[in-house]
Design brief:
Largest sheet: 6 strands, antiparallel
Shape: globular
Order of helices and strands: EHEEHEHHEHHHEEHEEEEHEEHHE
CATH topology of the largest domain: D-amino Acid Aminotransferase, Chain A, domain 1
GO molecular function: ATP binding; ligase activity; metal ion binding
Structural class: alpha/beta
Keywords: ATP-binding, Ligase, Nucleotide-binding
Protein name: ATP-grasp domain-containing protein
Number of helices: 11
CATH class of the largest domain: Alpha Beta
Strand content: 15-25%
Number of strands: 14
Organism: Exobacillus caeni
């Protein structure tokens, strides 16, 4: 590695305790000195208690957000910034040059990739344009003329973490959720085995590894039980998707279904570290080390599929106890 000292800043850290822990462990195991810092709008974000230092920042939509993050980067000599929520990806992609001028790398894909991923309709159109199998999305005309068959799936076209996603079984439910869900889209309901696939790419988009995780159980939109699977058909299909994206960078999470006839239908692209990534890391796909290496300019010329198959993750709650805070001490501006 070019440098054995790296300072990393995770933004909007929230509950991503396991990810912070794994980065710190990989740094220690590889004799990489430096700090792992976090930001959030709250001082009582659980991950804040596992980083070396935590900063309160304004909300992502606030005009002072970028300036505050840049200020922290300068103050703490940050080398690499890793955004963790969807709403900040475009903010960082649009302001990447400001950070690069200060020698700070941002682990964020191109604005084009984020634009495709952040709008489910655009994601669907990307799949269709590139002949990638995906559930049918119904147009307003098709919905108004009842050219569909139940069950259906309805969700916000700009949603995240499976919030506002409902199976629709009849006209009454379709009418209700159509009014209830803002900016809703309606699509074909797909049966099959659901997979979340973690992909690591360098800053040039070269793939290092692809790890399919079968979703056994989810809670609040995030996988709570999962198992790694070396399904070559999924790995090949995901590699094709990544190679078609206009500027992927870092960790990309792809969601798909594998049906009984072995057809693979893609539903989502999330260009960031997904909530279930600890399973892939624990299986041996060293996303933290690869992230640090790519941030230092390393190019991935060889793929690594040495991770373990059939490693199962079963999540549970864990507590943090502290006398440092009396309330949430959040920044609401």
């Amino acid at each position: 590695m070019k440098n054995t000292q790296v300072n990393i800043l995770f933004t909007s850290c929230g509950r991503r305790v396991s990810l912070i822990r794994k980065f710190k462990k990989v740094m220690a195991d590889n004799s990489i000195t430096g700090k792992v810092l976090t930001t959030d709008i709250k001082s009582n974000a659980p991950a804040a208690f596992f980083s070396d230092k935590h900063y309160l920042v304004p909300r992502v939509a606030n005009e002072k957000y970028v300036g505050r993050i840049l200020e922290i980067c300068k103050q703490e000599s940050i080398n690499l910034v890793i955004p963790l929520i969807d709403t900040e990806l475009m903010v960082f992609a649009s302001n990447k040059s400001l950070f690069e001028k200060e020698g700070v790398q941002i682990l964020v894909s191109s604005s084009k990739v984020i634009e495709i991923a952040s709008d489910k309709i655009k994601t669907n159109l990307f799949f269709i344009k590139n002949n990638i199998d995906t559930p049918k999305v119904y147009s307003m005309q098709e919905l108004s003329t009842h050219k569909y068959k139940f069950p259906l799936l309805i969700k916000p076209r700009d949603g995240s973490s499976s919030e506002g996603v409902f199976k629709v079984n009849n006209e009454n439910e379709l009418d209700f959720f159509g009014e209830y869900i803002p900016n809703a889209m309606v699509q074909e309901y797909i049966n099959g085995t659901e997979y979340t696939v973690d992909v690591m790419t360098d800053f040039q988009g070269n793939i290092k590894s692809i790890v399919p995780r079968q979703r056994i159980e989810t809670r609040a939109g995030e996988v709570s039980k999962g198992i790694t699977k070396k399904d070559q058909s999924i790995i090949d299909a995901v590699e094709r998707v990544i190679n078609l994206l206009p500027g992927p960078k870092g960790c990309i999470t792809i969601q798909c279904f594998k049906q009984e006839n072995n057809a693979i239908k893609f539903i989502e692209i999330n260009p960031r570290y997904g909530g279930g990534i600890p399973l892939s890391i624990e299986a041996g796909a060293n996303f933290p080390l690869w992230t640090i290496q790519s941030g230092q300019g390393q190019v991935f010329n060889e793929k690594d599929f040495s991770w373990k198959e059939n490693l199962t993750m079963l999540r549970f709650d864990e507590e943090v106890f502290s006398e440092r805070i009396q309330d949430d001490n959040s920044i609401s501006i």
